[in-house]
Amino acid sequence: MESKEYKELSKRLEIAEKNAQVARDWVEISNLHGRYNHLCLGHYWEKICDELFARKTPGVKAEIVESGVFHGIEGVKKVFIEMLGKLYNYEGNCAIHELTTPVIQIQKDMKTAKGMWFHIGLNTFSDPVKGVIPIWQVIKYNHIFVKEDGLWKFLDYRAHLLIRSSYEKAWVEEPVIQGSTIKGTKEIEAPKPDEPTSFHQPYPGKKGYWPGLPLPPEYIDL
User: Hey, CA dihedral for 172, 178, 182, 188, is it positive or negative?
Assistant: First the structure.
């Protein structure tokens, strides 16, 4: 018969192992997103689609600003290759996307997770009159992740626009430029989403109170 001390030690070991796994998952999810942001700067759109998104789990989605929601890995390719790849295909393009304020919550099943970050961007915009100009950009990343074969992947990727303003006027005077819709170089050629945009509430400038939604994932005691 097992002693009381043995049972207590076994329970403590179980808790310690789970805490260690949660910490490791936190690091690996952070690395996944950091890798994504580095790849964006180099325009490695195919690599993002092929290596960072889930391939074996149903429910893969991608949504950039107000472009709509795209389903499946083919939808992911439409977002990153057919839209972003075309929109940012000009000389002088720069998209340095810093990650801040992470909130990563592993779920009870230990196989899925939710995460939210701010991204502060030192970006450019190809203005039809001025040419390439510097802009500020702030995005709220709002994702669901899944672990496949021991590796964390994007399952439901969402990037909500908060600010995209010119360097000269900044966000109070000009909070959103570039229309805020990611459509590529020719709107008529833009791929059609599988469902409408789920959330789009950018900063309005001087007008009214702004709650800065959505909120980060709720805490779960694992």
Answer: positive
Q: Judge contact between 113 and 93, C-beta under 8 A.
A: no
Q: How many CA atoms lie within 13 A of 45 on its CB side?
A: 16
Taking only the tens of pLDDT, the chain with its 222 residues reads: 578 888 888 889 888 999 999 999 999 999 999 999 999 999 999 999 999 999 999 999 999 998 899 999 999 999 999 888 888 888 999 999 999 999 999 999 999 999 999 999 999 988 888 899 999 999 999 999 999 999 999 999 999 999 999 999 999 999 988 754 555 556 677 788 999 999 999 999 988 889 999 999 999 998
| Cβ contacts of 193 within 8 Å, gap of 6 or more | 67, 68, 69, 70, 75
Cis upstream peptide for 214 (omega within 30°): yes
Are 190 and 184 a contacting pair, CB within 8 Å?
A: yes
Helix (H), strand (E) at residue 103: strand 95-106
* 194: Cβ contacts below 8 Å, ≥ 6 apart: 68, 69, 70, 71, 75
How many angstroms separate the CA atoms of 143 and 62, rounded? 9
The token pair that represents 68 in the structure block: 């709509």
pTM for the model: 0.93
Domains and CATH numbers, the chain: 4-189 (3.10.450.50)
* H or E element that contains 77: helix 72-77
Phi, psi of 61 (to 5 degrees): -145, 155
